[in-house]
Amino acid sequence: VIMYGDEITNAMEIAIQETLRRRQIQENYNLKHNLQPTIIYKNIKQTTDINKDKNENIESFLFSEKQSPKNYSLKKLQSLMKKFSKKLDFEKAMFYRNLIIKLEKEKKQKE
């Protein structure tokens, strides 16, 4: 962790000490059990993929079959998107933006 500041505050000092304490516990455990830490290589999932999964879950939670997002007007969805972005709730704003894009694509495909 990289911390920036002109001086170390009490909260920073507590966080640093706690990190050192936990690191010591981990090192003792590794020595006791003859473990050598190794690097784990993983593919990083695209944040858009993560958000796509999250958006699908939000969509199924927010809308029942009777209350499909397709029944909402684009203006209503846009106003919800703007409302959440003004509240700085960017996850919900992004959800509505993606939903608008999805519905616009579906609309174009039908035409």
UniProtKB/TrEMBL annotation:
Q: Which residues form a coiled coil?
A: none
What does UniProt give as GO cellular component?
A: excinuclease repair complex
- Highest taxon of the lineage: Bacteria
A GO molecular-function annotation: ATP binding
Q: Which PROSITE patterns match?
A: UVR
Q: Name one GO biological process term.
A: nucleotide-excision repair
* Domain (UVR) ranges: 71-106
InterPro entries cross-referenced by the UniProt entry: P-loop_NTPase, UVR_dom, UVR_dom_sf, UvrB, UvrB_YAD/RRR_dom
Supply the PANTHER family for this chain. UVRABC SYSTEM PROTEIN B (PTHR24029)
Q: What's this protein's name? A: Excinuclease ABC subunit B
Q: What gene name is given for the protein in this entry? A: uvrB
